Amino acid sequence: MRGAVPRLSLTLLAAESGARLCAIIHYLVRGQLGWFGLTIACLVPGYAAQLLSILWFRADGHAPGCYLLALHLLQLGLWKRDSRRYWDVLRAEAGGGAGEVLAQLGDVCVLRLLEALLQTLPHLLLQAYVVVAVDPAGFIPGVSAGVSLLSLAWALVSYSHFTCLLKPGHLSPPAAVILCLLLWRTGMLGTRVLALVLFARLYSFWVFAVAGVHWLLMSFWLGAQQTDIVAQPCRWRLFNCLLGAVYIFCYINVRPGPSRTRVAVFYAVST
């Protein structure tokens, strides 16, 4: 099952990149320069992940030459890194090294989740708004939004799969469990995105006020839990603020131990 995770991740990564490129070309050909510019702008937050990828290459002992820097400037650095790590996982799986597989799988899942939250989520929101409020018959934006939704949901599932493997005595979940998790994440994200898009269509910029209140509530709630993942106070506050923004759309468990109470509180506030 561990080998199936990187295979599906690599497939979705390729499909998402292709659908995003088709959406960009679609807006450019039709002369919709506003949506074209916004779709391009959704790529900008991904440069934070590109910078982290470069730092990880340096940590792995690879000097970032001109070729590598050019790939990251073209938003292809994570593709190169993810592809290399996915194949490393598959080779480690074939070699039977459980520790090596788990380490490589962790790098893949964390990096892919970061990329999904920084790039895929803004792109999903934009394309969903285009389909709902601007061009309901738009096939390419609809396909791009659907692929982005599935890719984001799978990034969350693969991260949950990795954290499950870290627990002592836990084995890789069966395919049926992974499928149920994927359906749950897809449904949760889809309804949340649809609700925000419909609210934005009806009330325009008031959606930012609603999202802002939710973000503040989640950030204060995370701070009240005294999460000790980040030791420095300034970085701890920044971490809570960033994770609070993620909690507008989905719940990610970042603390060890049972999470049923925290999940219940999250869904009580979200609904």
UniProtKB/TrEMBL annotation:
<dbReference type="GO" id="GO:0005886">
    <property type="term" value="C:plasma membrane"/>
</dbReference>
<dbReference type="InterPro" id="IPR018629">
    <property type="entry name" value="XK-rel"/>
</dbReference>
<keyword id="KW-0812">Transmembrane</keyword>
<keyword id="KW-0472">Membrane</keyword>
<feature type="transmembrane region" description="Helical">
    <location>
        <begin position="128"/>
        <end position="156"/>
    </location>
</feature>
<feature type="transmembrane region" description="Helical">
    <location>
        <begin position="33"/>
        <end position="57"/>
    </location>
</feature>
<keyword id="KW-1003">Cell membrane</keyword>
<dbReference type="Pfam" id="PF09815">
    <property type="entry name" value="XK-related"/>
</dbReference>
<dbReference type="InterPro" id="IPR050895">
    <property type="entry name" value="XK-related_scramblase"/>
</dbReference>
<feature type="transmembrane region" description="Helical">
    <location>
        <begin position="176"/>
        <end position="198"/>
    </location>
</feature>
<feature type="transmembrane region" description="Helical">
    <location>
        <begin position="205"/>
        <end position="224"/>
    </location>
</feature>
<comment type="similarity">
    <text>Belongs to the XK family.</text>
</comment>
<keyword id="KW-1133">Transmembrane helix</keyword>
<protein>
    <recommendedName>
        <fullName>XK-related protein</fullName>
    </recommendedName>
</protein>
<feature type="transmembrane region" description="Helical">
    <location>
        <begin position="236"/>
        <end position="254"/>
    </location>
</feature>
